[in-house]
Amino acid sequence: MAMGGRSFSEYSLDDWKRLRPITEGIKTVRYHIVDSLYRRRAARSGDLAAIARTLRDRNVLFTIAFEDPEAIAWQAALVRHFVPSALHVIVDNSLDDAAAAGIERTCRDGGVAYLRTPHNPWPAPSRSHGIALNWVWHNLVRPGRPRAFGFLDDDLFPTAPDDPFEPLSRQDVYGFVRHGMQAGSGRWFLWAGFCTIRFDKVQSLALDFGQDWFLGLDTGGGNWRSLYRHLDLAALEQAPAREVPYRDGVETRQGPFQWIGTWLHEVGQMGQPELMADKRRVLSTLLAPPLEAAGRPRGGR
């Protein structure tokens, strides 16, 4: 397993005086031990083995859900309508049992495969998300052997026909590219909320969809060493993305929406908290036409 973190040559003399190579190394080992133990745990709900058997030679989209049954209901309907060639699987990382029950009911009513992850050991959202992604990689993707797989955030919605797997006929990975926070490092990764990957190109790699925080890489960036550094970013087709204010009179940084091609990202963890209810109302209005096209009125169950 690639351990991640900085190489010794990247530490300054001041870093060594502060023992950062040692403390960061200990933390990195700890993260990987927790991850290794977690992936062996059983799903709290759903038939893991049965779902894995349905993946072979399919294009599969996995959504990591988190306590938002409404968003999952919208996304499931829209993916079914606008990305009909993909198998959609909901993997629920919710902490709240009532929210998880609502998501499971939504999936059951909509005929969408559902699993609930083991109890997550990490309170930090990004690290919690990353370990859930790794659980999916080891327990579903690897044994299931899909043609290709991808990950979606639960507040990302297709609004028109799209095939996020089509670029994989020309390249090994596709998605929204993010860059590391360390200026000049050249490190990049695919955002774990919108990415697709050819399974045959990565099946033997020690993938890690978590953070590599000591390299300045957020969720998904743990794949820098094993995957992304071996790819020519300039040669890759990337998903186009732009951020806009969710409504007039609000600055983008106060309440952003993000468009990734024709996919609308609510960006639920960003913006001023007091705007979130209004932002969801605006999102509901924007999604009304595509939901009606998908045969599901926005307020239906």
Describe the structure.
There is one protein chain. This protein is of the alpha/beta class. Helix content is 33%, strand content 19%. It has eight helices and ten strands. The strands form two sheets. The chain has a six-stranded mixed beta sheet with strand order 3-2-1-4-7-6, sandwiched between helices. Strands 5-10-9-8 form a four-stranded antiparallel beta sheet. Helix 4 runs parallel beside helix 5. It is globular. The mean pLDDT is 91.
- Which sequence of strands runs across the widest sheet? 3-2-1-4-7-6
> What is the level-2 CATH architecture name of the largest domain?
Alpha-Beta Complex
What is the C-level CATH assignment of the largest domain? Alpha Beta
Helix content: 25-40%
Distance between the termini: 44 Å
Describe the protein's topology.
Elements: H1 13-17, H2 20-38, H3 48-53, E1 59-65, H4 69-82, E2 87-92, H5 97-110, E3 113-116, H6 125-144, E4 148-153, E5 156-158, E6 173-179, E7 188-198, H7 199-202, E8 241-245, E9 256-260, E10 263-265, H8 276-293
Parallel strand pairs: 1-2, 1-4, 2-3
Antiparallel strand pairs: 4-7, 5-10, 6-7, 8-9, 9-10
Question: In short, what is this structure?
Answer:
By secondary structure, the chain is α/β, with parallel strands linked by helices. It has two domains: 227 residues, Alpha-Beta Complex (Spore Coat Polysaccharide Biosynthesis Protein SpsA, Chain A), CATH 3.90.550; 53 residues, no CATH class. It contains eight helices and ten strands.
Primary descriptors:
8 helices, 301 residues, alpha/beta, Spore Coat Polysaccharide Biosynthesis Protein SpsA, Chain A, single chain
